[in-house]
């Protein structure tokens, strides 16, 4: 029985974050793909509260919620730390990770799924938040400095998924004119080896998103 | 002063930070903020959210209550540790604190900002969450064991808001979750908690003012 198992979903940025951290630290794990339309007894047993992926199982004990899992991984496997040592720098990394999940991501979702007359307002809000993020990045190579850290891992949906959304929908939120610094980070990020290995196949993701968009009546 | 806290008396998020500072015996300057007329200090120290609480340590701000609580726990680590030392237990504590943020505050908020079906949905959501927390507490005196810990600090401030939720939602939390109320009273026996929580009546008056502005009163 493998010591480390991960219940995940191929297209989920939350699930891929955990894989990125495990691979970065050279942790061997067994991956179990979950069908989110037909949740397995295993998932319901190990995450009864939220019934979501990812769930990490370490020696049979479950941990849920991607940010919680990432901190657990960092504390358990010390190679290639993803959080800074200094308590203030650590607090800042946690702040930006939370900003990405609580503020940026919902604002981007809003554009995708809002009605036509509310889309412009949703775009403005998302642009504002991404500008705040870009301002934090400034001239650093990554949010974590010279190497990727917690914030870069959590920003995977901006680094990769957003581009796929844009191509699937025809919506353009992030481009070089509007976000030169963020685009520079995206290029560095997707070319980084540990990131490259932990992204879903782009064509498959775009096809999946296109089918989701056409199944709803969403049109951009 | 080395430590300043920008806060409002009734904020449950602010109470978390106050409890933590008291637990650790940290001397700090408290600065009550007027959220209807935000001061330059708040806007400078929390430009992203413009909210309280903001902890300022040696001139550097830390925003978001649970991030501030963890920061204080890490810096003043010689006394009253709030997070467990074992990584798995720490993960469980973080999970439940995150649960409080998402599944207690937001449903609770509906009980005083909404009417009719939306209010009922909020009330039921809140009760469901409190029951899950009660289950997680079990027979332990506190969430992490024998003494006040991270999850206790994350949740106990909402005790001062229960009276408001109950009055506007027309229900009794004690009737639904007696063990949780017993835990609340146990927490209040800690001076750090009793000093930091606002009086339920003060919170109720505050919520009434907000409700008037929302046209609910």
UniProtKB/TrEMBL annotation, chain A:
Keyword Transferase: yes
Gene3D superfamilies per UniProt: 1.20.1050.10, Glutaredoxin (3.40.30.10)
GO cellular component: cytoplasm
Domain (GST N-terminal): residue spans on this chain: 2-81
One Pfam family in the UniProt entry: GST_N
GO MF entries: glutathione transferase activity
EC annotation from Swiss-Prot or TrEMBL: 2.5.1.18
Any one GO biological process: glutathione metabolic process
InterPro entries, sorted: Glutathione-S-Trfase_C-like, Glutathione-S-Trfase_C_sf, Glutathione_S-Trfase, Glutathione_S-Trfase_N, GST_C, GST_C_Tau, Omega/Tau-like, Thioredoxin-like_sf
Reaction(s) catalysed by this chain's protein: RX + glutathione = an S-substituted glutathione + a halide anion + H(+)
Keyword Transferase: yes
Family label: Belongs to the GST superfamily.
Protein name in UniProt: glutathione transferase
Organism, scientific name: Salix brachista
From TrEMBL, chain B:
PROSITE patterns named among the record's database cross-references: GST_CTER (PS50405), GST_NTER (PS50404)
Stretches assigned to the GST C-terminal domain: 86-214
GO molecular function: glutathione transferase activity
InterPro entries, A to Z: Glutathione-S-Trfase_C-like (IPR010987), Glutathione-S-Trfase_C_sf (IPR036282), Glutathione_S-Trfase (IPR040079), Glutathione_S-Trfase_N (IPR004045), GST_C_Tau (IPR045074), Omega/Tau-like (IPR045073), Thioredoxin-like_sf (IPR036249)
Top-level taxonomic group: Eukaryota
Main location: cytoplasm
CDD domains: GST_C_Tau, GST_N_Tau
Record flagged with keyword Nuclease: no
Pfam families tied to this protein: GST_C_2 (PF13410), GST_N (PF02798)
Catalysed reactions, as listed in the record: RX + glutathione = an S-substituted glutathione + a halide anion + H(+)
UniProt domain GST N-terminal: residue ranges: 1-80
GO annotation (BP), single: glutathione metabolic process
SUPFAM superfamilies: GST C-terminal domain-like, Thioredoxin-like
Subcellular location: Cytoplasm, Cytosol
EC number: 2.5.1.18
Keywords for the protein's UniProt record, in alphabetical order: Cytoplasm, Transferase
Regions annotated as coiled coil: none
Cellular-component GO terms for this entry: cytosol
Function: Is involved in the conjugation of reduced glutathione to a wide number of exogenous and endogenous hydrophobic electrophiles.
PANTHER family xrefs: GLUTATHIONE S-TRANSFERASE U19, GLUTATHIONE S-TRANSFERASE, GST, SUPERFAMILY, GST DOMAIN CONTAINING
Family: Belongs to the GST superfamily.
Protein name: Glutathione S-transferase
Organism: Salix brachista
